[in-house]
């Protein structure tokens, strides 16, 4: 069992318990003295054609800072002198898209200057170059006011420019000149109802409806960038527009409903509010804050990728009930994730590496969707619902599937199409491998615990694939049936239901093998760390449960470990155990005398190999087995024929870097110890076979490594052992499902003399694919005819 903790708390990269979310609700359209939800005046220039002017015409520029298109047909741009009450008008037409500008060309002066960009509307208003008043009105009626004009009916936005302007939102801007214009901050997106605060007096920069997106203030895509971390990390951004798509206890996700054409740039981002966010799904908002990269997991999550966030936010709610951006389809007909490569970065920290490649690298593919609404149709379940409320899924049509509907981990293919559903926003259903989440599963993309996550906003519907626990065939007369089964920290502290369930699995699903090598048998008080190492009570309860389930009477052999020296759950003192029945021809050869620290050896007894101790541990003092389980060797006889069995539980994968992690390619430091352990076991089996090349040797247990791994290569080097998982078709090679990847961790290896016989080998799938498990491992059994 590799997952040991789960923390849902978020510790902000920029902690701000005092982060303020200012929800400034828009008043009804027609009253300018409130923050505009969408269309604002973004530039005013009255020096057109005057001496030294850059442009030949005056102009007024508008900007849609909202998230939906706004029709402006019949609206007017109106102008009056600084103190006047007589207003001239230019009528508008068309629609202004979100994040786009609208250029209204006005009168030309007597001098020269460059032509404006192609205007979207044309009028004849002659604006003062220095001071005046400009109104955006949602009808064609001319204003008649000199003061208080910003709050007149129909006024959508208002700018008083120059110090003598008799009306303004708040205070007027500074004086303009032939070479300067009033430009609204944030690319036109900033609106605090203060002309003086919102506008800068600077060189004119007219923009028309072909401008927008990246040039019209900061958009979410600018925050995310086509990269693994934000190009704006550490910077402050203002008035970033979008629609709230999901809310959580400490923040919300919002997304730009007007995406650009670049699939490499995400259109959504998470806003960390450090408490209830104060917004609702469907709110059209602008957000300012600090762009931060949050690394989930705190100090223990250093191998995790970061998530781009806006922290210490200021949030303005423009409107409610805006339509949500359509979710991006992932899978056939939409964006298809890469099939094999997680990252093309060959060494080091991906956050500082070049080559962002969403089309070929799975890590970059999901990064390009970070925070966005995503839809997977009829998602295929490739791992069971976990106790953490997670379900690994893939889009339909993914390759390398197992015969039972999972997805197979292979050398060079970590299955980048996987994503893990998480219950952060809505409960997830109970599902097993082979099930389908019928219809569209929609949620926002997040990242934590070394995986990209899809956080569904509603609970998906499950259609069962009908998967059932497997049952192997019964051994025939003369067939030695040998199994291995990791029973996951079994102790007397477990409920009787676990003992009964394991007993039923041994009797019904494994068909009561002659020999079962058990891993993770704990001592008599389990995780209580008080020096107890004996496990006779654990084994007595298990063997009694097997008998009660209609099975045979099993005996056992094992050696108690030194307290606290074999790893595993602290206080549990896990060990391997031989469980065997004697009613079909199997007997155990007892050669007593070995303790927990006694090294076993091979004895040449007149050309026949024998063990010095049976049971006995192999090289327990070797550093290869430091804080890890020591191999247990036993000598059996099957109808008078010697059979040597070595039960193993190699070093776990704890400490290895995640597949979707910060460092690529992921380091696997745990395998160094497994390689050393494999070398010790291989040396011991070679000694047995050196005495008798036709000896019957079985090496089995939780090797904690893949069938394509170097660990397996070391055990099989020179052909002295045959690794049975390697003999199966690819789609059947798995004993464990981890984060949706079906993979081999448990092995049975047999000597050449046994492999030459017409054996039958079966991995019995009854745990790893199901949400209710007796163990997280599947057992396996080999039946070898030895008449």
Question: Would you summarize the structure shown here?
Answer:
Helices cover 9% and strands 30% of the residues. It is mostly beta strands and 787 residues long.
Describe the protein's architecture and organization:
Helices cover 9% and strands 30% of the residues. With 787 residues, the protein is mainly beta. Strands 30, 33, 34, 35, 36, 37 and 40 form a seven-stranded mixed sheet that branches. A six-stranded mixed sheet has the order 8-7-2-1-11-12. The protein is elongated. Mean pLDDT is 93; it is low at 1-32.
Content-based structural category? mainly beta
What would the principal axes of the Cα set say about the shape? elongated
Helical residue percent?
under 10%
The main sheet comes to: 7 strands, mixed
Query: What is Rg?
Result: 36 Å
Instruction: Output mean pLDDT.
Output: 93
* N/C terminus separation: 38 Å
Topology:
Blueprint: E1 39-45, E2 57-64, E3 70-71, E4 76-81, E5 88-91, E6 95-96, E7 101-108, E8 121-122, E9 132-137, E10 155-161, E11 181-184, H1 195-198, E12 199-202, H2 220-224, E13 236-248, E14 251-255, E15 268-272, E16 284-294, E17 307-319, E18 328-329, H3 362-367, E19 373-381, E20 390-394, E21 407-408, E22 419-422, E23 436-448, E24 451-456, E25 461-463, E26 479-490, H4 496-509, E27 515-521, H5 536-548, E28 554-557, E29 575-581, E30 586-588, E31 602-605, E32 608-611, E33 616-617, E34 632-638, E35 641-649, H6 671-691, E36 696-702, H7 710-716, E37 722-723, E38 736-738, E39 741-743, E40 746-750, H8 752-755, E41 760-763, E42 780-785
Parallel strand pairs: 7-8, 15-17, 18-19, 21-39, 22-24, 26-27, 35-36
Antiparallel strand pairs: 1-2, 1-11, 2-7, 3-6, 4-5, 4-9, 9-10, 11-12, 13-14, 13-16, 14-15, 16-17, 19-20, 19-23, 20-22, 23-24, 23-25, 26-42, 27-29, 28-29, 30-34, 31-32, 33-34, 34-35, 36-40, 37-40, 38-39, 41-42
Helix pairs in contact: 4-5, 6-7
